[in-house]
Design a protein that fits this description.
Helix 1 packs antiparallel against helix 6, helix 2 packs antiparallel against helix 5 and helix 3 packs across helix 4. This protein has one domain. It starts with a helix and ends with a helix. The protein is globular, with a radius of gyration of 16 Å. The longest helix has 29 residues. By secondary structure, the chain is mainly α.
């Protein structure tokens, strides 16, 4: 779990930085002229940092990340099964949805999720909770 946790932590930090800038920009847009609906250059820079980091990861790591992301987002729908069963089910499901062998598609799916950091943090919390309850 140490290596997995390190990878997750790095992605969470980059995604959180991006989300915070996005939230600030969104608030600025709401309270300013409706003509100015662009996110800041800082947002695009943070997004690029996250994208570059993901691009440098192996496709197997990306597959694990996207599986973790969806489990963290949708866990409430899976609570009746074990953690491992849910992880395997989600991974198998994602294999059938297309793009599983295309790293850029998987990365774009993750970049589209604004609270990516929250989903991954949820995943970590769920995994820790499940493993602490099974001991």
């Amino acid at each position: 779990m140490d290596n997995e946790y390190n990878v997750l932590s790095d992605v969470i930090e980059l995604a959180r930085d991006r989300r915070r800038v996005e939230e600030r920009d969104s608030n600025d847009i709401i309270f300013s002229s409706l003509e100015n609906t662009e996110l800041s250059e800082e947002y695009y820079s943070k997004n690029k940092n996250l994208e570059d980091h993901l691009i440098n990861l192996d496709i197997e790591v990306i597959r694990s990340l996207i599986t973790s992301m969806y489990l963290g987002r949708d866990w409430y729908t899976f609570e009746d099964k074990s953690f491992e069963d849910n992880y395997i089910w989600m991974k198998n499901h994602l294999k059938t949805t297309g793009g599983w062998n295309d790293k850029s598609i998987l990365i774009n799916q993750m970049l589209e999720k604004s609270p990516l950091d929250v989903y991954l943090e949820n995943y970590i919390d769920i995994k820790k909770k499940y493993h602490s309850n099974s001991n």
